# Entry
Amino acid sequence: SLMICFHGTPLSGEILNAVKILANKDAMVSFARPDQLTVVAEVCRSFVLDNGAFSAWRKGEPTKNWTKFYDWVDKWKKHPGAEWCCIPDVIDGSEASNDELLTEWPFECFGTPVFHLHESLDRLKRLADKFPRVAIGSSAQFSKVGTNLWWTRMSEVLDYICNDDGQPNVKLQGLRMLDPTLLAHIPFASADSTHL
# Structure
């Protein structure tokens, strides 16, 4: 099957450049930078709504109240091009705090949870048992994608979540993992290039 590549936004330059680059493609739009979503919704095949947790984490800011994010999702989830949304998460948070965010999520069928590489494989199983897709995010000591430590952890995760034929038991989304080197070795259903 064909893997979906979600091109990260925002794109620099004029809106015309965004249209040229994204026309008939798939995009991921972060709540931290939603300014190109109107263009994305018009020209892309599909799009994913990202919760913006990576932006907050990268800036060392606490994750904010999610009410405005929920309002944004509620507005855009009805669009025919909207595929799914990253459920709110705290990248270096505890499993309990991230599970709490799952229980607060108001759009059950529209959300994809994030499994952080520092979390237990037990949590990955719980997410895979409940959701049709799980996003994998690099975090804590595994935050730098592509290092030896990161590859070791990804191997553990894939050994755990894949069957004997190497096929995942759930669709996997690679967060910040749209790199041909990674894609050649990991059975993602989709990946993105969102770095903001």
Remarks:
- The first helix runs from residue 15 to 22.
- The two ends are 28 Å apart (CA to CA).
